Amino acid sequence: MKWFRRKKPNRRSTPSESRRVNWSRFAGIAVITLAVVGVVAGVSIYLRDIEWERFRALEITGELDRVSAGEVRDVLRPHIADGFARIDMRAARLSLEALPWVADAAVRREWPGTLVVALREERPVATWFGTALMNKDGEVFVDGAAGYSGVLPDIGGPAGTQHEMIRRMEEIHAAVSNSDLQLRRLLRTDRRAERFWLETGND
After folding, report:
1. pLDDT-based confidence at 198, cuts 50/70/90?
2. In the chain, N or C terminus with fewer CB closer than 10 Å?
């Protein structure tokens, strides 16, 4: 005996049902999209609200004699105002290094709310014509030595010879290192004639 299976008639969706399916799919995608946008907006608002508050501490390291914490705070204030997430670290570092007594600076964020600043101060080794302070590289970093109370050798020479004069000063220091004499002043003329005075006043 043969068994016959009656075929079920194919059920085709009507145009109205197709539209309902498409609208349902569109509505689902729209809900997901709105949810994602809502999450992103929520995170953005959260970050914006915490950015300033997250800077709860300023940590300054380094052997500092001339640079005060107040100066550092004043310089960093406009950068900190940008917030923990958006602060321009390079701009903050360059602003610190623009301070006369700062040789170099490093700035980093430490979660959750600390800005860590490491500073290295300039160390003067001589005065330039008695009016400016110079470092070991022959750079004038303070144009005006009136507020400095330390005793330094004074050197002077043609414009642009600062680095060369610092090297010459070191040579003289080395030459008298085994004696009690110390260099007090070193001058060079435009014709490269030199005179120097030791602590005893001999020239």
Report:
1. very high
2. N
